[in-house]
UniProtKB/TrEMBL annotation:
Residues 31-291 form the Protochlamydia outer membrane protein domain. Residues 1-20 form the signal peptide. GO terms for molecular function: aspartic-type endopeptidase activity. Keywords: Signal. It comes from Mucilaginibacter psychrotolerans. InterPro entries: OM_adhesin/peptidase_omptin, OMP_A26_sf, Pom. SUPFAM superfamilies: OMPT-like. This is Protochlamydia outer membrane protein domain-containing protein. It comes from the Bacteria. Pfam families: Pom (PF17251).
Length: 296
């Protein structure tokens, strides 16, 4: 009986260790830098019914890359509840954009095909949300979040060959909407841990462009795009504690954002507007980063 009692007490002690709540830092500040690269494209049809032709004009930005910086703050303000906010920005330093026009369906009978430089501009994102430590042990934690995200791209088209010396067209996007996120963290050793996350954003897409060399278009807003879309972001990371309050962090991520059909509204200098179908917008890319996390 005595041996059984000792065994039971030992088992309960082990269970207590496994299920005891890990005490997270009340405040966490993360700062990182890295590299991001993405592709971005959209196309429009010849009319609002998506016809004449089904792909009339198509813009494709390729290999938009540059240095990224990011900062985030998380506050464990009560019990298992967390407030979080973050900012990230990438300065575009490389990339090209191809402009294609077609007179026939399915990209047939091409009417225009030109490659331009696109190695300037930026992308950025701002998030704010609320999290809850659903599972929180010394070894494993799972935290769902919900909040709001506002993302922006500032994209360019210009020429260095001299053929279009005054070309300086811009295309600016906004992706805004609520997000949900799940973050899982696993402690591998006393100092080393790993994490994985997935985020879904339901986004309203809006864009405006200035096609500066076309005299029949209005300036500085030549046309606008609107559509409904979504974004998926997946990430993984490693975190190593160098002191009680300072961790070194490494991360990598992949993202894909898309819209459904929307509206292209063109503004002419005559005062008229013309609408056609926006076939869709597609954005894909990856990022890597390294930084530090301070806990208090």
């Amino acid at each position: 009986m005595k041996k059984q009692l000792i065994a039971l007490m030992y088992a309960l002690a082990c269970a207590g260790v496994l299920h005891a709540q890990s005490q997270p830092d009340k405040l966490q500040l993360s700062i990182s830098t890295g590299y991001q690269r993405e592709d971005f494209k959209w196309s429009i049809a010849g009319n609002q019914d998506g016809q004449n032709p089904n792909i009339y004009s198509e813009l494709q930005w390729k290999k938009l890359g540059g240095q990224s910086v990011a900062a985030s703050l998380q506050w464990n303000f009560w019990g298992r509840l967390l407030l979080t906010g973050g900012y990230e920005r990438t300065a575009i330093q490389s990339g090209t954009v191809r402009d294609n026009d077609y007179n026939g369906d399915n990209r047939s009978n091409p009417a225009y095909n030109q490659l331009f430089y696109a190695d300037k501009g930026f992308t950025r994102a701002i998030i704010a949300g609320l999290g809850y430590k659903l599972i929180n042990t010394d070894v494993f934690s799972l935290t769902p979040y919900a909040g709001y995200r506002a993302g922006k791209q500032s994209l360019h088209l210009y020429d260095r060959s001299g053929q279009f010396a005054d070309l300086n067209s811009t295309y600016d996007t906004d992706w805004k909407g609520p997000f949900v996120k799940a973050l899982a963290q696993l402690r591998l050793t006393k100092k080393l841990s790993t994490s994985a996350s997935v985020t879904y954003t339901q986004a309203d897409y809006k864009a405006k462009a200035d096609w500066n060399l076309i005299p029949s278009f209005q300036h500085p807003v030549s046309y606008r795009h609107t559509a409904k879309g979504y974004g998926l972001d997946a990430g993984a990371g490693l975190q190593y504690a160098i002191t009680k309050n300072i961790d070194v962090v490494f991360g990598a991520g992949y993202f894909t954002w898309q819209t459904g059909k929307g509206v292209d509204e063109l503004y002419l200098t005559s005062g008229q507007t013309e609408k056609t179908q926006l076939n869709g917008v597609d954005r894909k890319g990856y990022k890597i980063s390294a930084g530090v996390m301070l806990g208090f």
